[in-house]
Amino acid sequence: MNLKEFAGLLGLSPTTVSRALGGYPEVREETRRRVTEAAKRHGYRPNRRAAALASGRAMAIGHVIPTALNQEVVNPVFADFISGAGEVYSSENYDLTLSIVTDGSEDRVYRQMAQTRSVDGVIVHGPRIGDQRIPLLQELGLPFVVHGRLPGEHAPFNFVDIDNIRAFHKATDLLLDLGHRRIALLNGNLDMDFACRRRDGFASAMSGRGVSVDPDLLFAGDMSETNGHGAARRMLEGPNPPTAFLVSSLTMAIGVRRATHELGLRLGQDVSLVTHDDVLSYLANGPQDAPLFTATRSSVRAAGRRCAEILIEQITRPGLAPIQDIWECELVIGASTGPAPNA
Amino acid sequence: MNLKEFAGLLGLSPTTVSRALGGYPEVREETRRRVTEAAKRHGYRPNRRAAALASGRAMAIGHVIPTALNQEVVNPVFADFISGAGEVYSSENYDLTLSIVTDGSEDRVYRQMAQTRSVDGVIVHGPRIGDQRIPLLQELGLPFVVHGRLPGEHAPFNFVDIDNIRAFHKATDLLLDLGHRRIALLNGNLDMDFACRRRDGFASAMSGRGVSVDPDLLFAGDMSETNGHGAARRMLEGPNPPTAFLVSSLTMAIGVRRATHELGLRLGQDVSLVTHDDVLSYLANGPQDAPLFTATRSSVRAAGRRCAEILIEQITRPGLAPIQDIWECELVIGASTGPAPNA
DNA sequence: TGGACTTGTCAAAGCGGTTTGGAAAGAGAA
DNA sequence: TTCTCTTTCCAAACCGCTTTGACAAGTCCA
């Protein structure tokens, strides 16, 4: 059923029907009621593509997920983020188009999106230091929201991020307060902005107490279980092992736990661990009331929701000043931290 | 730049340009070359929506992800699956539109997709026993491929699935061969087809050796770390603990591992464990050469790729017989299995 | 040389909406 | 009564592409 047929059914012109459905003021209230009701009864819905073509609004948001060519790690955080965003989209009647793109060819995708106006805006995932995508999107004039941000505080674009510096500063303080001095940092790749900030938060907390950072206790790389395990194992078996770990993801923390178990060490007693927890739906940090790991916590699903809201806001009201949300992480105390062994 | 302008630039009619770009045979090879080259140089790309509208093909595939209303667990498998499918889509020039839908309101989404023809086909994720989506899609005449399948072998629809029965039969046999008799099964929710099949494979292997299944050693539920831990812990502390676990996901297996460690048991010695491994990119089963867990293995990313291929095949060649792929799982021996303690 | 076939190109009619620029009808004012 | 506004609706022009049917030019064969 198309508009013309449906309008014929009602004895109205397509124009009037379109306006009634679109909420325009030029139709009588009674007419509108008649139209919307008939639409429901006959199951009429305007064709998305036709509407998009005619109006210029795509009613769609693009998510571009970069994936490394070599060993494609899809950021697991992504599933939760997108499900948060998806809630907003469906309630606002936007579609979500997803592109999986191998690193580097993102340009092409963005350009195409902008050119064919196939989306009204995009979400930028996993921003990297010196990320080319952001200037590109600005140049293209395509509204966007970044999940995360870039170094240098005040670039004028929308983003939602957590206060990584503060979170890791607080986490480090916690460990320092417990008497730990040899603290290892297992971080994400340092070409990611969040990893740099976490490192900075860690470093400033350490130097704030006059404790030096041992470069041997720093790891930066893919935040996989295997890497967490490998790094922890190496450090713990080294000549001067850490008494505590500060870890950037729960997955990695699980690897650390494996390493400590293999070496007969007990978490929270022999070795302490604080991790960041994205509150992924399928990888809970233990039961609600008794967190497994002490953790800095912020829901990535909530971030997804917020990003979506901001983007739609920016799309519907062009010219709005950039919205920059920086969220505080909660610090939850779990079973993985305790006083330093020889404190 | 639109088609008319671009065609004007070349001194050709829009028709010819469209045909040249579309690969139709009615244009001279030289003309086609001239057109494609100019398109590249000027960065001309046909507007997707306009093309879709005119041709009736949406050039888009829909993925509908159900998410439970209560505590929305987004299947973590999904990220990898979709990245596999995404590869195919981008190489075949299809878009991927994603809908996150709360359980139950899927009908509406599918109907809308069919009605507005906003996608050419859909992928069905996480089929449940008696899933209403499949008859609905058949009724709507929308091409679809199911990742997984339904009970009752030969329903005529496309699917890609692993041979769950065989995989878990083999895994059980392995444990039985090692002398285990008290084997626990930690499974997914039994309203999922794959969980039933795995249970059947397990049960038939057990009864094939005359070993009875203890209902106290059966768990079925969300395949989370927490559930794996809880179930294992409960069973291991019970009066008649299992000597081996057969587990439906790596995440859950990690929970089991935690439980065994807490109780001072060593995996592969005091307790054995075989898990299914979806080869998720961010949750590797240890290093390549030394798997952590003994596992039945099948890449969900590969499944995503294959589903996408099949769907596109069905879309471009309507009337094709249903394609039903059933994949054999590999059984990889890791460090988590060993002879039964008192064997 | 002329008719039948190809081949390469084009004009124009959609696809299913939105939106602009009226027009008819009714209300109020002069 | 006539004129000017509103209000409510409509006809028609797009949006940018695909595709059908027609046509000119070229090829082949009789």
Automatic annotation (TrEMBL), chains A, B:
GO MF annotation: an example: transcription cis-regulatory region binding
Q: Which InterPro entries match?
A: HTH_LacI, LacI/GalR-like_sensor, Lambda_DNA-bd_dom_sf, Peripla_BP_I
User: Which keywords label this protein?
Assistant: DNA-binding, Transcription, Transcription regulation
Where is the chain membrane-spanning?
Answer: none
Q: Which residues form the HTH lacI-type domain?
A: 1-55
Xref: SUPFAM superfamilies: lambda repressor-like DNA-binding domains, Periplasmic binding protein-like I
Q: What is this protein called?
A: LacI family transcriptional regulator
